[in-house]
């Protein structure tokens, strides 16, 4: 029995939960249509039970590969039914896990306050905005709709009021989670990815008691959402969107053009100009000249991509 299988089986048995080593996915068919599971190709270590009086499911799912060089990774998620709690469909994506989206200008709703707002409210909102991107209706559907039919009306504060309460924003300002999604009567929370040192092929899974902690966070969030139902949203809060599909295309084409131009420049600079190699050998020493050359090549190409993306977004702004 593998380590994760043994740990999860022991945790389930200790707490008298059901454990299924192999699984066809969440028991609720409607939950399988959530964005979180849209690229799921396999499931395992499925635990079902009651936690704090509410039913739950914890499951690992495997994401399909998106390219020949991509990796298939396993991810742990917690799934909770909303019960009688009425919430709009939305998604929250941690900004620390979406650097590529931020780089391309893909973002969620802009939550803003006027300068005259209280320092407490502005600090609370700034902290939330640094931690999460909010998408009404789901991240992928929102971005796709913005690209295919730009100019669609934004959701109003009344529609997203359940998320825009001080207690909810306060909780999310300090919580550490992966992606969060609410849709069709269910709340799903993904395990958070480590900030540093995680290779591209590494799984993002929780084992044994680690699952208990994520389950506690999910139940705490559900409690906060329920208790905040009678709370007023932050005063003078405004919802907008600065996402521009043209900027996304400009960033992609700009980064590609920057990659090509910087690659050509690197070849000319490092291989066709004899003094360049001598200079690098002098700078890094003969022993480390190869590593220095590799580093310079990487920085030149990366700089070209970043500069090209920036120029592309500015041109089509």
List keywords for this structure.
single chain; 317 residues; alpha+beta; 2 domains; eight-stranded antiparallel sheet; two-stranded antiparallel ribbon; 9 helices; globular
Write the SSE topology.
Layout: H1 3-14, E1 18-23, E2 40-51, E3 54-63, E4 74-81, E5 90-94, H2 99-104, E6 110-112, H3 119-131, E7 132-136, H4 139-148, H5 166-174, E8 180-183, E9 186-190, H6 209-227, E10 238-240, H7 245-271, H8 274-284, H9 289-315
Antiparallel strand pairs: 1-2, 2-3, 3-4, 4-9, 5-7, 5-8, 6-10, 8-9
Major β-sheet annotation: 8 strands, antiparallel
Structural class: alpha+beta
Low-pLDDT stretches are: none
Write out the strand line-up for the largest beta sheet, numbering strands in chain order. Answer: 1-2-3-4-9-8-5-7
N-to-C series of helices and strands: HEEEEEHEHEHHEEHEHHH
Query: How much of the residues is beta strand, in percent?
Result: 15-25%
The proportion of residues forming helix, as a percent range, comes to: 40-55%
Query: Radius of gyration in whole Å, from Cα?
Result: 23 Å
Could you report the average pLDDT, rounded to the nearest whole number?
77
| Oligomeric state of this protein | single chain
According to DSSP, the number of beta strands is: 10
Shape: globular
Compute the number of structural domains.
2
Through-space gap between termini: 55 Å
Q: What's the tally of helices?
A: 9
